[in-house]
């Protein structure tokens, strides 16, 4: 791959935000896919969480290939979500758009271009985030299946109880980044979930591109999150809801939203308040949950959501 330098001060500059930790096994393929993007106006910021494998060496190699495009900073070493958000908060970071990037996936060459085409319709003053579908692949990059299409539109009332935005496809504008920096929470469950939740909560725009499959999402034993599709995965999530497995995550999200309450618009503040009441009130949990308007993406999971409220496991 030929070295290619960045043309400064040109429009639609995209900062690719990559969090790494011992990702050398798959990192080269991801870096090559970034270099092959049809949209050429990008830079790469990498936050490395104390990698002990060949990750730092690879990053230095590509710093030489991608002349004047790569900045490497030390990570906070508090997990993947905090690692990504530490990049969002970097004081020297400046771009028109920002794209989360996992260390072990492969981007299709039009990933950035497609996202910018969709985001171009949103006024730059409005926080906006784009995400698409993915192609699940095996460890050796063989196709498994495409991620499913969501039944209901994205929104804050969905984000309160579910993350449907895969971070490895997310691209967001400068206004969304400024919103994330203003909130500047100290802890979150997942960086992409928080991005989805905060942007929708503030009344921003979410573009869910169900027609585009732009990332080869690698599934392997060291996946921090991974994904599940099909009825078995939905049934498993429903069981987890009833069992209260999501309660600790909701605790963290609620604390973060409470600290950022002033950033939510009026209707979403009301939805959030009713959701919190549903979590606290043993006798009126179903009433407040329904009043909040929260929803998940399947009937089975919505039924499980109400059972979790009844049993105070929300």
Describe this structure in words.
This protein is α/β, with parallel strands linked by helices and 314 residues long. The chain has two domains: 14-218, Alpha-Beta Complex (Spore Coat Polysaccharide Biosynthesis Protein SpsA, Chain A), CATH 3.90.550.10; 231-310, no CATH class. The protein contains twelve helices and nine strands. Strands 1, 2, 3, 4, 5, 6, 7, 8 and 9 form a nine-stranded mixed sheet that branches. β6 and β7 form a beta hairpin. The protein is globular, with a radius of gyration of 19 Å.
Residue stretches low in confidence (pLDDT < 50, at least 5 long) are 1-8
Average pLDDT level: 92
CATH architecture of the largest domain: Alpha-Beta Complex
Within the CATH hierarchy, at the fold level, what is the topology of the largest domain? Answer: Spore Coat Polysaccharide Biosynthesis Protein SpsA, Chain A
Largest sheet: 9 strands, mixed
Q: How big is the Rg?
A: 19 Å
Helix-strand topology string? EHEHEHEEHEEHEHHEHHHHH
Number of domains: 2
CATH class of the largest domain: Alpha Beta
Distance between the termini: 50 Å
- Classify the helix fraction into a percent range: 40-55%
The gross shape turns out to be: globular
The tally of beta strands, per DSSP, is 9
DSSP summary: helix tally = 12
């Amino acid at each position: 791959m030929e070295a290619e330098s960045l043309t400064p001060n040109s429009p639609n500059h995209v900062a690719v935000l990559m969090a790494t930790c011992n990702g050398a096994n798959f990192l080269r393929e991801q870096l090559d896919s970034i270099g092959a993007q049809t949209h050429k106006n990008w830079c790469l910021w990498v936050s490395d969480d104390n990698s002990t494998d060949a990750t730092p060496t690879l990053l230095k190699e590509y710093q030489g290939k991608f002349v004047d495009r790569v900045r490497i900073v030390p990570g906070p070493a508090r997990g993947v979500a905090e690692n990504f958000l530490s990049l969002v908060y970097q004081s020297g970071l400046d771009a028109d758009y920002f794209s989360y990037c996992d260390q072990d996936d492969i981007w299709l060459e039009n990933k950035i271009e497609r996202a910018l085409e969709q985001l171009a319709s949103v006024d730059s003053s409005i926080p906006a985030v784009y995400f698409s579908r993915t192609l699940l692949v095996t460890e050796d990059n063989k196709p498994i299946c495409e991620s499913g299409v969501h039944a209901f539109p994205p929104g804050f009332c969905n984000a309160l109880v579910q993350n449907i935005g895969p971070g490895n496809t997310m691209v967001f504008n400068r206004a969304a980044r400024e919103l994330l920096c203003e909130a500047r929470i100290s802890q979150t469950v997942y960086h992409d979930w928080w991005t989805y939740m905060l942007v929708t909560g503030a009344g921003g725009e979410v573009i869910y591109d169900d027609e585009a499959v732009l990332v080869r999402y690698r599934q392997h034993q060291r996946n921090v999150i991974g994904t599940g599709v099909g009825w078995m995965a939905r049934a498993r999530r429903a069981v987890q809801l009833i069992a209260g497995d999501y309660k600790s995550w909701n605790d963290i999200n609620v604390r973060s939203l409470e600290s950022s309450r002033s950033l939510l618009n009026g209707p979403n503040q009301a939805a959030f308040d009713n959701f919190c009441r549903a979590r606290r009130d043993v006798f009126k949990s179903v009433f407040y949950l329904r009043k909040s308007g929260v929803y998940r993406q399947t009937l089975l999971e919505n039924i499980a959501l109400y059972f979790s409220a009844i049993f105070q496991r929300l």
